[in-house]
Structure formats: C-alpha cells, structure tokens
Amino acid sequence: MTEPVDVETPHLVPVTEPHEGTPPVIETDAGLAAAVEALASGTGPVAADAERASGYRYGQRTYLVQLRREGAGTVLIDPIAVGRLDAVNEALAGQEWVLHAANQDLPGFHDLGLQPDRLFDTELAARLLGRPKVGLGALIAEELGFALAKEHSAADWSERPLPEDWLRYAALDVEFLVELRDRLAAELQAAGKLEWAEQEFEAVRLAPAPEPRVDPWRRTSGMHAIRGGQGVAVVRELWQARDELARKRDRAPGRVLPDRAIVAAAQALPRSERDLVALPEFAGKGTRRTSGYWWAAVERALALRPEDYPPRRLPVSTGTPPPPRAWPEKDPAAAARLDAVRTAVRALGEEHHVPQENLLAPAVQRQLAWTPPLTVDEPSVRAALADQGARPWQVDLTAGPLTAALATA
CA-to-CA distance for 131 and 203, rounded, in angstroms? Predict the structure, then answer.
C-alpha cells in the first residue's frame, strides 16, 4: 500500500500511469498460464504486492496480486477467479522477491501457494537506514524523485469488476519497487548494514504464522470503560456473536456491529430486547433487524452466575513480564533494569541511526530486564538475547552495552 504524496512538489515528477500501461486482470487458467510463462522467462528480482479488503470483508484474504519482472512487465492476477498460484511460485523458484512491508502480504501469499525463496523488504531497509518516512510513496519520492498519485489504499478490493483507476493504482505499486530496492541496497552496503538487513529479511520470510490470540474479545475498543464482571460477560458474548455472524456474512466485524455498540450494551446492561434497541448505538436499521440475535447474546451473559463471569484481565503467564507501568510497584529492581536497558538501546539506536524497536524488539528488552541471566556477563546476555529471537547482528551490537547496563542497574 502507498500513502498519498504531494504531486505538486516542484522537484518531483508526477506519475499517474504505469510506463507500459495498465495490464488486464488475469481471470482465466489460460491467462494465468501465459503469465507464468512470461514471469519464468523474465530476469532479475520480482516486485510483488497484494490488495486486501480490510474493513470490508472478514479476515485478510488477498483479492489482487501484483507482480512485475524485467522482461515480463506487470502482471495483475485475480486469485478469487483463478485460485491458488503454485505455478507462479514454481516459475519464480530461487528468485528474490521485493515487497514493501512484507509481513503484511506474506500471510496472504502463503495461503495462495506463494512462498518466496529470498526476500528484500524496502520498508525494513528504510528503517535500518534511519529514514524518517518509510511509506512506499515517500521513499519513491525521496529516493527516485517520482510522485505517485495514490488514493485507493483503503478501497474494497473484493469489488468486481475492479475499476480501471484502482488497477492503475495497483500496477503503480510495483512499478518502481525493484529500482527502489537497488537504491536502498546500495545505501545499506555503504552504511555497513546490508548484512543486518539480510538477516531481518530472512526473519520476516521465515516468520511462523502468529498463534491465535487468547480471548480476542478483550481487545474491543472501549473495553477499559467496563467495570463490573457482568459487563465484561456482555462484551464477550456480543463479540463472539458478532464474530460468528461476520464470518457467515463475510463482512468486517465492525460493519456488522461496531465496538461502541458492544461497549454501550455492556455499560447499560439492558433487561429486555426493547431496552437494547433503545440504546442509540443499536438504532441503525440493520442492527434493529437483527436485534433478536444481539439480545440473545446479552441474555446469555445476564444469565451467568457471578462466579462464571470472565475475569477482568487474563492472568499473567509465568515468566511473562507484566505491563511496564506495574513494574515499579511489583518489582522496583526490574523497573530499574528496564530503564537501564531502554537507555542503552536508545543510545545505540541514535549512534547507528536505527529506530530502537528495530535495533532490539521491545518485548526482548522487557524480557531481559524482567528475567535477566543468573550470571550477568556477556556470554549469558548473548545467550538470553538469542533465546528471545534476537538476530545475530542485534546480539553482536547490543550484548556488551546491555551487559554493562544490567550490571550497574
């Protein structure tokens, strides 16, 4: 995805059309076979991007795949029409794929049978170079001097047929990726950071699918305003009912019932369906039509005994640090260690022009401060960092300063 760039900036060259025009969308097996042949005969890295329908459809399904390779041009594929893309993956075996913010697109690619063997992530590269703006449009403007007129990043890409201006947007997302990759790779090499970047790219490429979140209903926006256990139970039942209905309808949950309606019901604790629909947040025509469904969920919560209410907060797993704001009271020594660790990482980030969250993940910093090695020496700190998933370049850069920080905290 690309954020808007001011096309009126004098020194930028506005680009509103792909250089070779907007290709037709591939929607047939024959079209896919021709695209596979073209991509296989191309040369060099493969620029790749994907479009989803976040905010419109349930889940993160991919609705359009964009690929570009020298000698093959740009290819736009409708995976809803043609299905899995294993043939594309086979045609590009061993090639480097260039993506921007690859962690957003790779899960959807994997679902389609696309598994890059090598990866270059232009967003990650820009972060390691200390760029203040790492959006694709900003980087293309800064590095290449082009201004992309972009305005469809939040569109409903499940719509069919896709409008022509949307397809131009999609094609432009891969138009300059390889050129941008070459520029950033040269800058990484000059800064002595290319090996760092390669380790980061490989970590993203091999990252496992995230574990399902425990009690995802607890992330309901506004949940912090719910005080009593019965209200928490209402949130859970309404959230789960919404999720089931959203999945059946293939609609984004927030479009089925907004979070604010769930929270309003949990605060009001209505005693009848009539009371529920009297709430302003349930006054919409669609919500009223399904009021019986929502009332059934509220009734289930109201029927629970107090001992069956879900806990206000999940218990903290053994060894898992609590929220840092609680550290000064729970463990003042750990709070002091965290301050020292953060200070050391921040100083290193400034020295090497790398955001501290990219230099060492905040979760790793917290874990090291909460459960430091029994013996605070550099070998032990190196082992602890590696156990937490820090990459070798991160371990090499931070182990010494962090050992000193823990020893003096």
Answer: 21
How do residues 111-141 score in pLDDT, each as one tens digit?
999 999 999 999 999 999 999 999 999 999 9
Q: Could you check whether the bond before residue 4 is cis, i.e. omega within 30 degrees of 0?
A: no
Confirm if 251 and 57 have CB atoms less than 8 A apart.
yes
Residue 218's CB: how many other CB atoms inside 10 A? Answer: 17
pLDDT band per the 50, 70, 90 thresholds, residue 8: very low
Give the pair of three-digit tokens for residue 111: 């679902």
326-345 pLDDT tens trace: 999 999 999 999 999 999 99
Which H or E run contains 296?
A: helix 291-302
Q: Please give the C-alpha separations between residue 198 and each of 192, 193, 194, in angstroms, as whole numbers.
A: 12, 9, 6
Fold that domain 216-308 belongs to in CATH: DNA polymerase; domain 1 (1.10.150)
List, by residue range, all CATH 3.30.420.10 domains of the chain: 13-206
The tokens describing 407, both together, are 């020893």
The count of other CB atoms within 10 Å of the CB of residue 82 is: 22
Q: What is the pLDDT of residues 44-81, one digit of tens each?
A: 999 999 999 999 999 999 999 999 999 999 999 999 99
- Helical residues (DSSP H) of 323-391, grouped into ranges: 327-330, 332-352, 356-359, 362-370, 378-387
pLDDT of residue 188 exceeding 90, the answer is: yes
> CA of 364: how far to CAs of 299, 356, 357, 371, in Å?
43, 12, 10, 11
Residues linked to residue 82 through DSSP beta bridges, in sequence order: none
Residue ranges of the chain that CATH labels 1.10.150.80 = 216-308, 324-408
Q: Is the dihedral of CA 12, 16, 22, 27 positive or negative?
A: positive
- For the residues 149-160, what does the mean pLDDT come to? 82
SS3 at position 273: helix
User: Which residues have C-beta within 8 Å of that of residue 267, sequence separation ≥ 6?
Assistant: 225, 226, 231
Q: Which of 31, 33, 170, 22 is nearest to 88 (CA)?
A: 33
Strand partners, 49: 66
13-206 is classed CATH 3.30.420.10: yes
| Distance separating alpha carbons of residues 114 and 111, to the nearest angstrom | 7
Identify whether the C-beta of residue 364 lies closer than 8 Å to the C-beta of residue 389.
yes
Q: What is 324-408's CATH superfamily?
A: HRDC domain (1.10.150.80)
